[in-house]
Structure formats: structure tokens, C-alpha cells
Write a structure and sequence with these properties.
The chain has 79 residues and is of the alpha+beta class. The protein has a domain at 24-68. It is built from one helix and two strands; from the N terminus they run βαβ. The protein has one helix spanning 43-56; strands at residues 29-35, 57-66. A two-stranded parallel ribbon has the order 1-2. It starts with 28 loop residues before the first strand and ends in a 13-residue tail after the last strand. The mean pLDDT is 81. It comes from marine sediment metagenome.
Length: 79
């Protein structure tokens, strides 16, 4: 979708929760979207994931977290 909108600098990164190190330079990312994953992690795993995200985010970068979608969160659930 991003490329169809002319956005060429968006790179999806998919990791497993046990892979704590993200292979990116420190302070190299403007925005991190963390959606639908935290509820799968233990508290220590969440803490370590946040620490790694903090490491790769640029100063003033944006972290957007959506903890878990539920059926009622979907647009059709509100009709």
C-alpha cells in the first residue's frame, strides 16, 4: 500500500518475540508501529522490546502501540 501512495521509505520489519535485537543502527528510525503483539509477550519480553525500540528510534521519533484488536474494535463491529 505504501508504494502505491508514493511512500518509498517504509520498511516493514517482522521479528519473533524471542528475537530481541533488531538489526538496525541506533537512532535510525523515525516511527515504530507496534500493533497486536504485546499480549503475546511476557512482561520481561515487553520490557526488552521497548528498550530495543528506544535504541533504534531517533530522538523525537514516534512509537505507536495498539495492544490488541478485539472483534468490537473492527469497523463492522460498530454497525
Amino acid at each position: 500500500i505504501a508504494k502505491t501512495k508514493g511512500l518509498e521509505n517504509i520498511i516493514p520489519i517482522h521479528t519473533k518475540s524471542e528475537e530481541l535485537k533488531i538489526n538496525l543502527e541506533s537512532e535510525s528510525i523515525d516511527t515504530v508501529l507496534l500493533y497486536d503483539v504485546l499480549h503475546y509477550m511476557e512482561a520481561l519480553g515487553r520490557k526488552r522490546r521497548y528498550e530495543e525500540i528506544y535504541r533504534i528510534l531517533k530522538t523525537g521519533g514516534l512509537l505507536s502501540v495498539y495492544p490488541k484488536h478485539r472483534k468490537s474494535d473492527e469497523p463492522l463491529g460498530n454497525l
